[in-house]
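Notebook entry, structure prediction.
Reason for the run: the old model in the group folder had no record of what sequence produced it. Starting over properly, with the input documented here first.
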Amino acid sequence: MAALEYFTAIGAGNVIIFYWSWSDNSVVSDGNPGKPDGVDGAWTGDGTGTELETVKQLQYIGTFTTTPLQGVQIADVGVFAPKARYGQLIVFNESGILLCGTDDIESAVLMSPIVDDIQAAA
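New structure, fully documented this time:
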């Protein structure tokens, strides 16, 4: 689930795509596809290709589709099973509108584990 705040009005149907760059290593950017550097900020791909080329290496989580509402929008983005223990979230903003602006206290991404019910299996 994601709650995203827009600094200005946004049209309906714009998309923000969420990806996961997984790794078996807890060291930042060590073994992650897409080579994110672990620093908050603009991700520019792996340095050998464009973002559109490099994003194909990442694990797709889901797409956030916007409404024309200005301010905070909340939507279910998707369900995924991480391929490894560690990872970094990549948010690919194709809307062309700045997320958050200078007041981002209402923006959040929630990752909630889905755990099998052990009692139901007995």
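Summary: The chain has one domain: 2-121.
The old model has been moved to the deprecated folder.
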